[in-house]
Design brief:
This protein is mostly beta strands. It has 1 helix and 11 strands. A 6-stranded antiparallel sheet has the order 6-7-3-10-5-8, with no helix packed on it. The chain has a 5-stranded antiparallel sheet with strand order 1-2-11-4-9, with no helix packed on it. The longest helix is centred in the first third of the chain and has 8 residues. The chain is globular, with a radius of gyration of 15 Å.
Length: 133
């Protein structure tokens, strides 16, 4: 955690090139992504088994769908480290540059959903942190 937050605090997240950055080998790395949000129907719900996602929007607004195992049904087989789902019930929350989200293993989330009527170009930071139960 310390290495992750130190890395985030010491890099120009808005202007650095998109890509993968090592923080602590495979224990923690960061993906800087420029992406376009999409209609909810085009975004899959996902959950991980071994990694924690810390997600932070640097520019724009990203809507997250959040649900639980109670409402989720797998639509793909497990592939390291993700399974995709559909859900009967889902809650939506907007992520802006003043917040970040943490998704632990088995936290079901749907990323890159458009928050407004039109798709939006955003910059998002996804820290992938090894989960050690």
């Amino acid at each position: 955690w310390d290495k992750t937050f130190q890395w985030l605090a010491t890099h120009d997240l808005a202007n650095m090139p998109a890509g993968r950055y090592e923080v602590d080998g495979e224990h923690c790395y960061i993906n800087v992504q420029d992406a376009t949000t999409q209609d909810v129907s085009k975004r899959k719900i996902e959950a991980h088994r071994h990694g924690i996602d810390l997600q932070y929007v640097v520019k724009g607004t990203e809507r997250f769908g959040i649900t639980s195992a109670e409402y989720a049904e797998p639509i793909t087989e497990y592939k390291p480290d993700v399974t995709f789902y559909k859900a009967k019930k889902i809650k939506y929350v907007d992520s802006t540059p003043d917040t970040f989200f943490m998704f632990f293993p088995k936290n079901f989330h749907q990323a890159l959903v458009k928050a407004g009527k039109e798709p939006e170009d955003i910059r998002v930071i996804v820290a992938k942190i090894e989960y050690i139960p």
